[in-house]
Structures are given as C-alpha cells and as structure tokens.
Amino acid sequence: MTTTILQEDAEIVLNEQIADGLFLMRLTAPEVASAIRPAQFVQVQTDPELSPFLRRPFSALRIDREAGWVDILYDVIGRGTARMAAAGPGSRLNLLGPLGIAYSPPESGPLLLVAGGVGIVPLAFLGWEHPDRRSKMTFLMGSASKIRMPDLNDLLPADLNRHIATDDGSMGHQGFVTDLIPTHATRETTILTCGPHAMMARVTTIAAELEIPCFASLENHMACGFGACVGCVVEYREAEREDLRYRKVCTEGPVVDAHAIVW
C-alpha cells in the first residue's frame, strides 16, 4: 500500500521535559494524525532558516485522529533538538510524512515489545493503536538509570503489562532489558523491538536462540527520509541469495525482519 506523503505546518500545543534530556511534544497536525501508523515517522524542520539544514526524523508516540494531534518524544542531543526544546506552545514546526513502513503484527499469538530509551515511541503507539491485542502484549522497557526513565503511566496504556530494567539498578531489574526476554517469551511469541543498535542486535540473537520471529524498528540517521540520499542503508541477507544487499531504512524500513539484518 502506498502512503501519500504530506507536508503540514503543525502548531505546538505542549512541550515539556519528562526525564533527563527527554521531552514530550504535542503537535496539532490533523492530516498527519489521520494517516500515520505505528513506527512510521515524520521529518521535522527544526528551524525555517538554513542551519540546521536537514530535517530530523521522529516516530509518533500517540495520536488522536479526531482531535488531530500527534505526540512525539525526543532526546536533546544536538542543535536541532535543542531548538525544539526551546520552542513554546503556539510555535510552529513543518512536518513531512508519514514516511516508512509501519509495524504489522501477526493476527494472533503473544507480542513481546522490547524498548530501549526513546525506542519506546513506536512500540507505545502500537499499544495504543491495538487495544484488542493488549491482553497478549508485554512491554519491556530499558534505560540507563532512573533519571532517564520517563513515567510510563504517562506514555503507555494503563492496561498494558510492563516491566522495567535499568543498567545501574536504580529502578526495576538491575541489568539490560534483554535479560528479561527469556522470562517473558514463549515459542508462540513474536518480538517487536526498537532502541539502541547494540540492544536490538542482542534482542535478535536471543530471538534466534529461541527460534521465534523478531521485527525491529531501526533508528538509523536519515537525511531526506524518502530514499533519495541513500544515507541510511543497512546490510541484510536475502534467503535466496548468498551475498549481502543493502536496504534503505527510510523506505524499506524502519520496520524490518531483524533476523535478516547484518548487525
């Protein structure tokens, strides 16, 4: 199915810090809200001038199609996101999207959602989007420490079962979120994951050991967002070929079969 790419001037409704370096922004963008699906993203023009020139990609965390708003969660790591953090309600940002391939979860069986950091975003959206599946969803959330862990009650549906891990043990399980996977996965489970590259590589390894499906929403740097610049490619294997090929994350992802990626 081909998705129409929209360009929309969105108004900021709220923009607040919810953890160390993490901000939640709500944008009034009725056209994007009506079309975007879990793991798809928008390219945000963080400033109307030439610096920073490139747009920044952000997946939707939650939407309200009737009210016409979109929530995004972002980490302040550079000039573009610093400008976003400084923007107040009433300011406007130009959006391009929706872009990319959405999650398409299997029609039956348990789903294990494994998130790290801002990787919570597309997985949370999946939970909001499929209330009929939430009883078979388990959400595993990992973060470096308590100060980097947002209040999940504000970001996830109340009836979504969740478990937390922090690297330093300041909240929940002490260790990596991937430590929790064997406890919550069965032979019928499908894993969906998003987060740091190393985390998703480990999730994929565990899924392979358990011989269960795993789909990842990749977080590669994207410049254009629609396949023109070829700056976001990853290596992957095709079952019918022995050599490696390349996949554009923006147009042939961000959701991919994790077992096919050369991590």
Structure description:
This protein has 263 residues and is an alpha/beta fold. It folds into two domains: 6-99, Elongation Factor Tu (Ef-tu), domain 3; 111-260, Rossmann fold (3-Layer(aba) Sandwich). It has helices at 30-35, 79-86, 120-129, 181-184, 197-210, 249-252, and strands at residues 6-19, 22-28, 41-45, 56-59, 62-64, 69-75, 92-99, 111-116, 137-143, 161-166, 173-174, 190-194, 214-217, 233-237, 244-248, 255-257. The chain has a seven-stranded antiparallel sheet. The longest helix has 14 residues, at 197-210. It is globular.
Q: Give the tally of β-strands.
A: 16
Q: What's the gyration radius in Å?
A: 18 Å
Biggest sheet, in brief?
A: 7 strands, antiparallel
Number of helices: 6
What count of domains describes the coordinates? 2
The CATH class of the largest domain, by name, is Alpha Beta
Q: How far apart are the first and last residues' alpha carbons, in Å?
A: 28 Å
Order of H and E elements? EEHEEEEHEEHEEEHEHEEEHE
CATH homology superfamily of the largest domain: Nucleotide-binding domain of ferredoxin-NADP reductase (FNR) module
Overall geometry comes to: globular
List segments where confidence is low: pLDDT < 50 over at least 5 consecutive residues.
Answer: none
Which bin fits the share of residues in helices?
10-25%
**Average pLDDT reading:** 91
- Class from helix and strand fractions: alpha/beta
Second rung of CATH, namely the architecture of the largest domain: 3-Layer(aba) Sandwich
The CATH topology of the largest domain turns out to be Rossmann fold
User: What percentage of amino acids are in beta strands?
Assistant: 25-35%
The neighbouring-strand order within the major sheet is: 4-3-7-1-2-6-5
